[in-house]
Amino acid sequence: MSCLFESFLSTPEVTELLSDRAVVGAMLRFEAALVRAQAIAGLIPQAAAQSIMGTCKVELFDVPKLVRESAQSRSLAKPLVSSLRETVSLFNPQAASFVHVGCSDQDLVDTALSLVVRDVLKLIETDLGQTIQTLLKMAVQHAADAMLARSQPPWSALTSFGLMCSQWAAPLVRSQRRLQSACSCALSLSLSLRQVSEPQALAALQDKGPQLITLMAADLQLNAPDFVGDSAQDESVALACELGVLVGSLGKIAADIAHLAAFDIGELMQATAPLASAPGARPAPPLDIANLCMVAQAAAQRVPQQVAVLLAMLSQAHGSAVDHSQAQLAPWPALLTASQGICHVVTQLVTGLQPDTQRMRSNLEAVRAGLPGKSAKARFSGEMATQAVALAHTQVAALRAL
């Protein structure tokens, strides 16, 4: 099926990071780090390691051919390892026997996934940080701009746009902190130290196990596993769950913006397009709020499905006659694409957002005018407006402290 059907959910940056070429490159980085560490530990000759490392360059491989062979063999790792051995043997036949020694195919794929996920999360963190800062800035700027609190209990119908912005930012700040913690646990090296036929060689490999893990983790800038053979599947699923929570919060913001920008309410609008930066260049067209909110909602509906699949597979990870290890990787591209896509879209939304404070005031006055005098006074008192302003500043200060 054509990727055009899903292209609106992604960005060029995340498409590149999740491309076949990028994944093969991450797998080759693992193989290079493996032999580099083994050479330092004295397990393989330095010359053999140099030959293998010099061959671990994605431009030396036919990536489309590897993809076809992976589909035929139903294995992500075997075609690459076979092709790597063949390519190494062209330059140094003696070094070919040291390729992919001491690790499993699953180690290769799991670590490559950690490398790819880490790169995508950097994009997510950048957009998330920008969204938070924009919301906090708007919270201060519009702390005193009163508006209807449409989701508040009936005894209080008054809030401010600044307070709403701080309330949008609060779950994002909490997600930001939890994502950092989840990443520190989930993005780790996988190394089982097996697939060596000679008992003596296996004993030597396991004896050097802690050193190899330390060297490879530092080389790839990943966390070292708690112990040899720990795949930490639960940690990666926990990271997926945190992405799901973040996407849910972003989807809520997009839904609120769509509601407030609707024609019958009209309290939010897109800011005027910036002037062209270069002489003679056309100014960028303003982004359409409805279209951006549609993209955000599509991503928000997609992510929970991928998280649910990962959670379901976690219960089948052990004690099953069927190996689900590769199947557990399938939801990640869609999960990462939608998560980064909604982060980028919401950043565009809040950055280009312009509140119509006059419309906010007129909508508020229209509701107040339709209420009995005592009820209107109770629900739209000046004290409530003052409290909204103070609460907005208090929340902003607390969030910035976090």
Measured between the Cα atoms of the first and last residue, the distance is 44 Å
| SSE pattern, N- to C-terminal | HHHHHHEEHHHHEHHEHHH
Radius of gyration equals: 27 Å
Number of domains: 2
Corresponding CATH architecture of the largest domain: Up-down Bundle
Topology at a glance:
Elements: H1 12-17, H2 20-40, H3 46-55, H4 63-73, H5 78-91, H6 105-141, E1 146-148, E2 158-160, H7 161-186, H8 199-207, H9 209-220, H10 233-261, E3 268-270, H11 289-314, H12 331-351, E4 353-355, H13 357-369, H14 373-379, H15 382-401
Antiparallel strand pairs: 1-2, 3-4
Helix pairs in contact: 2-3, 2-6, 2-9, 4-5, 6-7, 6-12, 7-10, 7-15, 10-11, 10-12, 11-12
Keywords:
Fumarase C, Chain A, domain 2, Fumarase C, Chain B, domain 1, two-stranded antiparallel sheet, mainly alpha, elongated, 402 residues, 2 domains
Describe the structure.
The chain is an all-alpha fold. The protein folds into 2 domains: 20-103 and 191-230, Orthogonal Bundle (Fumarase C, Chain B, domain 1), CATH 1.10.275; 104-190 and 231-402, Fumarase/aspartase (Central domain) (Fumarase C, Chain A, domain 2, Up-down Bundle). Helices cover 65% and strands 3% of the residues. It is built from 15 helices and 4 strands. The chain has helices at residues 12-17, 20-40, 46-55, 63-73, 78-91, 105-141, 161-186, 199-207, 209-220, 233-261, 289-314, 331-351, 357-369, 373-379, 382-401; strands spanning 146-148, 158-160, 268-270, 353-355. It has a two-stranded antiparallel ribbon. Helix 7 (161-186) runs antiparallel to helix 10 (233-261). The radius of gyration is 27 Å and the shape is elongated.
